[in-house]
Design brief:
The chain has helices at 3-15, 85-90, 99-102, 119-132, 144-151, 161-176, 196-206, 224-238, 258-270, 305-313, 315-327, 335-339, 360-367, 371-381, 395-402, 431-446, 452-459, 461-466, 535-539, and strands at 22-32, 41-48, 51-56, 62-68, 73-76, 78-80, 106-111, 137-140, 142-143, 181-185, 212-216, 242-244, 275-279, 287-289, 345-348, 387-389, 407-409, 483-486, 507-512, 515-519, 522-523. By secondary structure, it is α/β, with parallel strands linked by helices.
Amino acid sequence: MSKAALLLLGMMAASTPATASNYDIIIRGGTIYDGSGSPGYVGDVAVSGGKIAAVGKRVRGSAAKVIEAQGLAVTPGFIDAHSHVDFGLEERTGPMLDEQDLLQGVTTILMGPDGYYSPENIRQRMAQLKTRGSGVNYSCYVGHNGIREQIMPGIQRPANAEETAAMAALVREGMEMGCVGLSTGLMYEGGMFSDTNEVVALAEVVKPFGGTYDSHTRNPSLEMLKSEKEAIEIGKRAGIPAKLGHLKATGLINRGRIGDVIAAVEEARAAGQQVVADQYPYDGAATGPLSGIFVLPGLKDMPAAADVRAALKDPKSRAVVRELTEHGEAGGFSWVKAVGYGNMRIVDAPGAPELVDQNIELLAKAWGMEPFDLVARLVQDHPDSLLITLGTIDEGDVRKLMVQPWVMIASDGGYSAPEGAEIDPMGYHPRSTGSFARVLGHYSRDLKLLPLAEAVRKMSGLPAKHLNLTDRGLLKPGLVADIAIFDPAKITDRSTYARPALRAEGMVTVIVNGETALEGGKATGATPGRFVARGSARSKK
């Protein structure tokens, strides 16, 4: 054979696909949305050893398990960058399967937003994941409020130099454990007593670790733009990316004003700063019983409705309750103080459907009453406590924010037990069981507000990049095999304010770290989830 013929054969061999390989799983014929925002295409995904081994229009080889995905969407597993589901799962026994999130395609959850977790809290959660097992992965923020409570318990002022140094040491400890960054809850105790300089000093600690700053801003209802700009400023001064947590424009005073915040973010981004936000796709913020807004003397927890009614009967006691409810006890937190009556809307009223969607401030005016007297009357007159949202949101503002390319989808949800079981207070909201499915179904498919490829990017590639979770978020060979497979024609949220526990539909299969955690729309009982450290922490190991 001539040298030319040998050379030609060598070139042909180099361009020929690899010979048949054995994989653990091959997903055949689905429409692949790789998490980058690129349009979908029909192809295959192969998984081996917990990693994505191959992605393409045709993957040659065989596998122990073949998933036929014709007509289905195949995407990276979704990353919920702001969740509180672990609070509810902690109180239950057995594996932390978290079927409500698997049914939405969520494979990684960020614990500790709003400043909750100190390093000690994080260690406890990590131990739970290891001993009980989890259906999904967890990553974590280290939290300002949790640390502040440890160093400055009950102190209502900004930290001094010594206290700041002690808190900085704990932030560093959290980052060394693999946290993605610092989170704050500046609307809550004790973050509400800090100043900007204190937070900047702590945010600076995460910079060498490649971390981010995540903020529940200081006064998002009554001083929305000022509060969001403070978060942007903290990120800029610390030299790290900033994320505006569960961004929205709530209440009567902010209706139609989300554009002001969008403009502020765009200005910062144009100047080279990394600023993003997360959003849940609903027209109401946190929910809870109307009786829960009352503050009773000496009681830190949410009061029982019966105790509220008893306290309101006596005129002297009623006056004290009003003062505490509207101004907080000893300068502390209260919902009325934080958001105002104009931010409260009734979302469920058993036996009184005429009250649903009524704004408390507007209803009080219509009835010729002071808002406090109105809510007191409603609590006394309705044995089944009315359910309210503590942040009304204009639907137009929801949509205007959702299409911004720097906005990711997150739930801000809690654990919502199946219907008929006791519901964790944080699980009252439909966002807990419906956020991701709602964007894919209602906003992308039905309203055509954004293409499916872009919706997937907002749930996978975007949060992975921002959080420095470098081994997931895309369908790319070598990355972790966190994969969601769903029917784009059927994916839908079913939960409502009145029935928040209803699970989403349309998710077919979910793979976590290469293991099938959801199959045929049901949790398999597998516990492949683990604690996920940010990329820079892994690279040091």
